[in-house]
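Hi C.,

You asked whether I'd gotten around to modeling the 108-residue construct. I have! Everything is below, sequence then structure, no commentary in between.
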Amino acid sequence: MGIEITPRELADLLANHHPVRLVDVRQVWENELARLPESLLIPLNELPNRLAEIPKDPASLIVVYCHHGVRSLSAANYLSRLGFTNVRSLAGGIDAWACEIEPTIARY
C-alpha cells in the first residue's frame, strides 16, 4: 500500500470500524471551518514538538489530512521516517472528502 489513502478507502475503513487515528495538520482556523469527527488537530509546524500525542500502535492506521493533501503527504512522509509504520495521507485532503464522501462538510 502506498503512502496515500483515497477518501473512499478511508470511508470504508471507518464504516467497518477499523482502528483509525485521524490527524489534522491544518491551521486552527481551517479546522474550525471543516473537520473530520474525532480527529486530532496538530498543525504541521507543531508536529515535531507534539509527536508524543500520536500513538505508535501498529494495529491502528494513522491517517493525516489537510486541505488538499499536500501538507498531509509531507507529514505522513515525516512520520514514516520517524518510525511510524502504519501512516497514510488522505489523497485530496478534506476537500476531496467533502466532494466524494460527505458533502455537508464546508468547502473553502
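If it helps when you're writing up: The two ends are 30 Å apart (CA to CA).

Thanks,
B.
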